[in-house]
Amino acid sequence: MNQNIVEYKAVLEECLVECKKMLDFEAKKRKALLDSDVNNLTAVLQAQQATMMKLENIEKKRIAAQEKAGFGEMKADEIIEKIEDKEQKNSFTSTVNELRAIVEEIQSLNKISIDIAKSNLKIANTILQQQQADNTGVYTSSGANANWSSSSFEEKI
Q1: Would residue 95 count as lying in a domain?
Q2: What's the gap between Cα 52 and its chain centre?
Q3: What pLDDT does residue 152 have?
Q4: Alpha carbon of 53 to those of 16, 41, 46, 64: distances in Å?
Q5: Rounded distance between C-alpha atoms, residue 101 and residue 65, angstroms
Q6: Do 83 and 5 contact (CB within 8 A), yes or no?
Q7: Cβ distance 12 to 62 under 8 Å?
Q8: Mean pLDDT for back-to-back runs of 10 residues, the chain (157 residues)
């Protein structure tokens, strides 16, 4: 067994753990968007940002481990072809395939979340425009629309 490949695979598995967290965050983000839960959305986005920072550091480790293993800038499929030990090759292939599947799912959920957020923004924008056009945003204590004019503020008491 090639120890450099073992170390490289360990870094990929570390990446896999963080990607699973990201997948969980994507599901929570989608739920927060659907529920219009701004506080939960903010918390999820902060957690995602922290995980992204971890993933950036893991990516640096992955690049270094890939170089150390002698794979340079090869893609995963090219690396798999270079691994001679059958057991290592199967294990590495399994990890790469799981990582790919999770990344695809993250991308899919993220796209859905973006679509939901855009839809929510369009709805909010439409409501605000309608309120401005109808002047329905300001009410008196009796619940009727107040007809505020600029001259109301210019009168002297």
Answers
A1: yes
A2: 9
A3: 46
A4: 14, 18, 11, 17
A5: 22
A6: yes
A7: yes
A8: 88 97 95 91 95 97 94 94 92 96 95 89 84 64 54 44
Tally of residues, the chain? 157
Which residue(s) pair with 145 in the sheet? 139
Range of the domain at 90: 3-115
Tell me, yes or no, whether 29 lies in a domain: yes
User: Are the beta carbons of 45 and 127 closer than 8 angstroms?
Assistant: no
| CB neighbours of residue 45 within 10 Å | 14
Question: How far apart, in whole angstroms, are the C-alpha atoms of residue 108 and residue 116?
Answer: 13
DSSP 146: P
Angle value at C-alpha 83, between 90 and 6, nearest 5 degrees:
75
How far apart (Å, rounded) are the C-alpha atoms in residues 55 and 77? 21
Q: d(Cα 63, Cα 67) in Å, to the nearest integer?
A: 6
**109 belongs to a structural domain:** yes
**Residue of 60, 54, 61, 62 lying closest to 79 (CA atoms):** 62
**Radius of gyration, alpha carbons of the chain:** 26
Pick from 141, 125, 143: nearest CA to 133: 125
